[in-house]
Amino acid sequence: MSNETPPGDRPARKMSADPAPGFESIDEELCRSFQRSAELVGRKWTAGILLAGILGARRFSEYRRHVEGISDRLIAQRLRELEAEGLIERQVVPTTPVLITYKPSERAVGLMRALHPLVKWSIDDQASAPDRR
Fold first, then answer.
1. How confident is the model over 100-128, as pLDDT tens digits?
2. Which has the least CB within 10 A, 20, 21, 93, 100?
């Protein structure tokens, strides 16, 4: 049996003695939480798929059209992952042929609202240095 204290029971520790202004309240636990979120949305194609859904894509072919360069296999894989994370709601309509739709959940809408400043930053950054990619 280990004598380690579970992470949630440990007192919060500050990351640095001198954080940048505005980041003083971020401790190790918040940093880990942010890292999980950043890794989720930072997976290749994930942000593009979520943005496509926010912009109205619902059918598989619409996601393919919105997200240039992604294979059908990867669209299917990312949609399954996002569904498992509670970010995409998959609905099967029993018609002939079967209709399957993928819609961003309220959680995904909240995530994309939080990422909206990053979208603006990326547009501004690209405009200020068009040779950088």
1. 999 999 999 999 999 889 888 988 998 88
2. 21
| Whole-number Å distance between alpha carbons of 60 and 33 | 31
Helix (H, G, I), strand (E, B) or coil at 104: strand
Would you call 26 exposed, middle or buried from its count of C-beta atoms within 10 A (0-12, 13-18, 19+)? middle
pLDDT, one tens digit per residue, over 64-97 is 999 999 999 999 999 999 999 999 999 999 999 9
Interaxial angle between packed helices 46-54 and 106-128, expressed in degrees from 0 to 180 and rounded to the nearest 10: 110
Cα gap 102→77, rounded to integer Å: 13
* Placement of tokens 């018609």 in the chain: 95
Amino acid at 34: F
Retrieve residue 95's tokens.
Answer: 């018609």
For the cut 60, the answer to whether the pLDDT of residue 11 exceeds it is no
What does DSSP assign to residue 102? E
